[in-house]
Each structure stands twice: as structure tokens, then as C-alpha cells.
Amino acid sequence: MSLAQEAHFPCCALVNLAMGRSYLPLSLFASALLGAKALVQGPWSDREVLPETRAHLLVRNMTLDEKILLLHGPPSLHPIQCTNPTRAECAYVGNVAPVPRLGIPPINMNDGPQGFRGQAGLSTAFPSGLTMAASWDVDAVQEWGEGMGTEFFEKGANVQLGPGLCVARVPQNGRNFEYLSGEDPFLGYTLVKPAVRGIQSKKVIANAKHYILNNQETNRFVVSAETDERTRFEMYYPPFEGAIEADVGSVMCGFNKINGDWSCENPVTLKHDLKEKLGFKGYVMSDWGATHSTSLMRGLDMEMPGAHSMNPELIKAGLGAGTITVAAINESVERILLPMFSVGVMDEPLSTWDFKRLQKNVTTGASVASVRHLSALSTVMLQNREGVLPLPQNKKIALIGLVSSNAIVHAGGSGSVDPSFIASPLFGISSAAGSAANVVFSNGTDINAAAAMALSAEYAIVFAGTLSTEGSDRASLSLDDGCKQCGNQTALIEAVAKANPKTIVVLSVPGAVVTPWADKVAAVLVNFMPGQEAGNAIADVLFGKVNPSGKLPLTFPNVENETQISQVQWPGLPDATKPTYSFYTEKLTVGYRYYDAHNIGFTTGFPFGHGLSYTSFEYNELKVSNLTVTFAVKNSGKVAGAEVAQLYLGFPAAAGEPLRQLKGFHKTKILAPGESENVQLTLRRRDVSIWDVNQHAWRVVDGHFNVSVGSSSRDFRLQGSFVVSGDSTKELFV
Ligand code: GLC
Q1: Whose CA is nearest to atom 9 of ligand 1?
Q2: Which of the listed residues 288, 303, 417, 470 should we mutate to test ligand 1's pocket, taking the one with most ligand atoms within 8 A of CB?
Q3: What is the arrangement of strands in the sheet containing 697-700, beginning at the earlier edge strand?
Q4: Ligand 1 centroid vs 210 CA: distance in angstroms?
Q5: CATH fold group of domain 365-542
Q6: How far is CA 483 from the centre of its chain?
Q7: Within 365-415, where are the H helices?
Q8: Strand 257-258 and strand 224-226: pairing?
Q9: Greatest CA span in the chain, whole angstroms?
Q10: 30 CB contacts (<8 Å, ≥6 apart)?
Q11: Is a pLDDT exceeding 50 seen at residue 234?
Q12: Residue 341 C-alpha from the chain's centroid
């Protein structure tokens, strides 16, 4: 009897397996002896069958030990402490052993959210998550995901530990640069979908992280984020909801606590919220060292990177004590196998996941060209006085600051990637300035010399920036904090601007910065953490080859701590009982929502959603019908360009919502001068709902809603309104 026949009469085999006995059809044993080259044939092999069914059928043919094997990393070795890189356990930043008898591949997982982090020079440094958020461009983000997924696949990695999604609750968070949401949940919700689809289209499982409320690095291993349910569902879950809607295969729980319970053993956020309310079908892995117990029954499915808690001994002890059930083990294993089937990992030959592929240099001309394109698309032009930009060619240009080997292209921690080559601003601008151009440069440490150089040039471009990293928050939003080798950049900018009125500042920064000198310079651009093609991309923008269309994904404040964040809110109060805790007392009033609530104007700062173009746009023909908003965007300038049109919604006052919140946006195609595009933004019932904490569900709000459409959160061109009526108490939904 062939395996297939046996498996179609699986009663005894399956019953035995389910009971943990190891009776198996002979042919499965054979594959174990021979070492399967691919997933062993069985009822789970049929690719026409739903992934959920395939996972279910496979689990039923696994022994208890094989199931438990999938729930943790290598028992003895912490991959980061590995000394022998040729050992499988050492090969990736995290991995789960294969099941040779069944041909289940290893799970090879690697950082990070902006490219394959590993041996320097063997992969591409893509723009960071926040940089891509500045594109407001779903097509660009899909391209970003596809590019990274391709490189992970080529490296033999079948899980990418990204995208990072945490909302930028506090501007100083050291990891804001990694996160695709910026300061707004709807921006994150919308952009995460193409990112996940892009990554997973390359047979690599994406990992939405860090779930949840991991919004600071200070005391990250112990801080408890104290929040209410409505704040979680309306402010912090939406980016993860977007990932779930895109069928993200895995989620990473974080180091912090939520309301006193560790994130990776928190039944409220993991079981009730994530798996029940948000409907997540994949698996929850812990952050590295964030597992504090055998918390399989509390929502954790996989311990990373080792097996201190989710190991055979402790799990079997739990089975014996009745604190762990076989059903729960089966559910976790099915959650792990499901994305392996749905994304295509399981149907690859095992050689695809051979860790020897790590030695490949996976950077290609295509990936480098894409990074250049994506970085240019994500560059935000904050200011352009007297139309100083785009630059003419064949001029004398002084490049000052972080322009050559000191160029900033990525930030620190697990989110960094060291590429084989970095196109510096000096390289990019020298290549683009024209054959008769005269490009001189200084690293800016001697401010007087830099000012003299600026005086002698027709244009002066100061490349300034700062850095941040996982593990600590930024000391301030000043350019003079966070980058020791960058010198006193504020003084440098002011001295250069004094010497040359045509001074342009380019900021490569990991998040919001204060720009007190903005009114002293002609132009300001920000490319955040631009990736390895930074110099070519910024040259494309500066010389007008690419018309900037980026928009700020977070507010650039006028002054430090403009939103009056107290220590109670961040970084939290010290306390003997729970080392620190941060109260999210601001609830929904994060970022631009605070500015609106307190009617704060912008002097030297810049608002959320702001970004200029070399052309101009007119908005007209607004129509609001039910939940559909239509309008036309016209290029009213002289050069082609794309616009990100934004829709902000104002709830009825009684709803207790922020004054306005982003509920729609659309990036037009590149419009020729005089060309128009009709835009339609359709609101969902969800967009006119609030989270009802009594019913634990969304409830549509009755009343008058204000619609503001424009070019930023402070540049509205069209205003409208609509009314929702009817008995909204019946409109409960999840
Ligand atoms: C780190 C980070 C996480 C990363 C993991 C593996 O602590 O918090 O984002 O993916 O460990 O390096």
C-alpha cells in the first residue's frame, strides 16, 4: 500500500499520531532514513487544497516531538553567540530545525525591516521603513517589499523579520526609522499591505513587528505600557490589522509589558485582541529573549531564539499536569505551517533553504536601481524659497558635511544593513552636476572654512543628519544629538547660510528633528534613512530628474517636546513593583492630532503630510456622497509631477475623537502640466466608527462628519461634509 493510500485510510495512523504514539506508514520512515529532498508526499501535498487544510493534514501526521520542535529555536545555541557559522543553528539570526522525516524545511529567519542583515557587502541596504512611509506610495512600497523578499529568498531565508509597524508615539523613539506607520495608524494600515504582499510574493514569510505598544526603547526590556482598550484598537492595532488583511504569516511580540503582563504571554493582547478580534491566523514568535514562560496557552506560538521555555521537557510537563493541551500544541503548529504552505515555502525543494546560500552576494543591478528610485520617491521637499531648486547644471557647488565616506544611509541595531557600495552625495552630485560644473566639498568640521567655501560657490548644500538605534531613545530632536562624528551641525548650517543665500539643507535623519534655522536657508529636503543609493537619489531630486513627491509621515516640531509629553507618559516612572511604566494618557492625541487639538501653528517646523513639488496642484470638483469622496487634482504648474492628496475626517464632537484624522490618501500618477486626475476615496463603515469598549466591537457613529481634502494636514483645499444617521447601536461589527 502506497503512502497516499495509507494516508487516505489514515484512521489508525492518525489516531496513533494524535495520541502522540509514533505509528507511521512505512514509507514515511523510509523518507526519514533517506533524508527527504522535499516535502514528503501525503494528503497535504495537493497544492489545490487550501493551505489551512494542508497544514491540518500535515500536523495530524506529526509526532509530538516533531510538533514541539517547531515551537522554539535551537535548544543549546543562541545563534548570535554562535562561533561556528557553518552550523545550521548559527546560520541565520533565528531558525527552527527541519523535520527530515516529513521533508518539512527549516525556518530560516533574518533581520531586518530594510534588507537582509548579515555579512557586510552581500546584500542591499534598502530605504528604511519610515523612509518608505514618506513616499505615501503603495506601488513604491510593494516594489520595496518585492526587492527585499527577492534577496531574502536568494539568501535561503524564508522569514523576513519585518516590516516594523509601531506607531511613532514619541518622536525620540530610537527605532522610529524602522517603522512604516510614521505617527498615523491609517498610514501604517494602508502601506503595510503592499509591503507584506511584496515580501510574501517571493516565498518569504513577512513578520509584523513589534506587537504591541513597543513605542519606546528606554527600559524596553521591562517597561509596561499602560493603555486602555479603545486606544489600542484605534491607535496601535490598525497597522497590524492591515498586515493581517494582507495575510501576514507571522507577528513578533515585543519585550515590553502591556498593563503589567509581558507582551509574549499576554492573553488579552495575543489571544483576545490579535487572534480573536483581529482574526490573525498565522503565528506569534517572541522577540529575541522576550519569552518569559511556557506561554503556549497564553497566545505565544514560537520562542526565539532558543528554547528556554517552549521546549519538550516543559511542554510535556505541562501536558502531564494538564496545564497544556494537545489541541493547543496542534493549533500553534498549524499556525506555523499555514504561512509555510500559503506563501510557498513548503513546496520548494529543501535545497532552496540550504544555509550555504548565505555566502551569495544577492545585490543586483535591479535592486540597486530600485533603491535609487525608491529613495528619490520618498524624499520630502520641506521648503524651496525663490524656487532655488531644481539646480541648474554646470555651476559651482559647495557640498558641506556628511557628503562622502561619512554619509548617513542607515541607522543602527537589527535594522541596519551594511551594503557593498554606498553612493555618497559627493558621488551622486558630481555625476549629475554637468561636465562644466565645479563641485567642491568639505566635511564641515572647520565651520569657518566651510563658510568660506560656501561664499565662493554659487550654491551651498549642507548634508546634515543624525542617528539612532534599537536599545535607546534619542536624547533630543536636535541635529547636535545622536551623531558624535557629525560635529555642531546647527552652527554649521547657520554659518553656511550666512555666507550664501542659496543654501540648501538635506537631512538624513531617523525621525523628527527640530529645524530652528529653517527661515535662514533657501531649501530643506529630508530623505530619512535613504539606503545605499542616497547620493544618486538626492542628485536625481536636486537636479530635477525626479520631481519630489514625498510627504512627512510624522510632524517636525517647532521646538523640543512641543506635545508636552510628561515623564509619566514617556519614558515612564520608576517603580519597585514593575520597574517602569508608561501611561498612554494622551490616548488618541498623538502627533498632528495634538497640534490640531491645541491649535499649534508652524513657524520653523513642518506639519504631518507636508511636502512640496517643483510644480503646483489645484483641487476642485469635490463631491461627497454617502461614504464616497471624489475630487479632481490638476497640475497647475509648468513641470510634470505627482501629488499625494489627503483626506482628513472630523467626527461629530460627541464621539470623543481627535479634531481630524487621516482616513484616505491617493498618490496621483505623474501629471503633465495642465493634466487632471479624478480621485475617488471610499470610506469604510469602520472609518466612521469608534471602538465600543462595552461591546468590545466597532460601532458606527451617528452625526455630522467634516471632510477636509488637501496637500497636508494643514493645507486643505476642499471642505465638505456628510451625515451618518440610523440606529448606530445596531451597527456593531468587528
Ligand atoms: C531584536 C529586535 C528585533 C529583531 C530581533 C532579532 O532584539 O527587537 O526587532 O528582529 O531582536 O535580531
Answers
A1: 414
A2: 288
A3: 689-692, 697-700, 732-733
A4: 9
A5: Rossmann fold (3.40.50)
A6: 23
A7: 365-378
A8: parallel
A9: 88
A10: none
A11: yes
A12: 24
CA pair distance 661, 611, nearest whole angstrom: 18
Domain parsing of the chain, residue ranges: 365-542, 615-733
- The pLDDT of residue 467 is 97
Q: Give the three-state DSSP class for 289.
A: coil
CA–CA gap between residue 312 and residue 296 (Å, rounded)? 12
Question: Could you please report the per-residue DSSP string of 422-440?
Answer: ---HHHHHHHHS-TT-EEE
Mean pLDDT over each residue of the chain, to the nearest integer: 93
* DSSP label of 447: H
Nearest partner of 157 among 415, 419, 416, 352, judged by Cα:
352
H/E element, 592: helix 592-597
Q: Give CA–CA dist 304/313, Å, rounded.
A: 17
Q: For residue 565, what is its C-alpha cell?
A: 509629553
N- to C-terminal Cα separation, the chain = 48
Determine the residue type at 311. N
Residue 440 CA to residue 496 CA, distance in Å, equals 14
Instruction: Say if ligand 1 is within 6 A of residue 92 CB.
Output: no
> How far is it, in rounded angstroms, from Cα 247 to Cα 241?
10
Report the distance separating Cα 484 and Cα 461, nearest Å.
21
- Does the beta carbon of 175 lie inside 6 Å of ligand 1? no
pLDDT of residue 461: 98
Q: How many CA atoms lie within 13 A of 513 on its CB side?
A: 30
Q: Per-residue pLDDT averaged across 671-682, rounded?
A: 98
The yes-or-no answer on residue 347 being catalytic is: no
Per the DSSP assignment, residues forming a β-bridge with 699 are: 690, 732
Which protein residue's CA is at the shortest distance from atom 11 of ligand 1?
A: 288
The ligand 1 atom nearest the CA atom of 305: 6
3-state secondary structure of 527: coil
Indicate the pTM of the whole model: 0.94
Sequence-ordered alpha helix ranges (H) in 118-200:
129-133, 138-154, 185-200
CATH architecture for residues 615-733:
Sandwich (2.60)
Give the integer Cα–Cα distance in Å for 567 and 557.
19
pLDDT above 50 (res 172): yes
156 secondary structure, DSSP code: T
Question: Which class for 222: exposed (0-12), middle (13-18), buried (19 or more C-beta within 10 A)?
Answer: middle
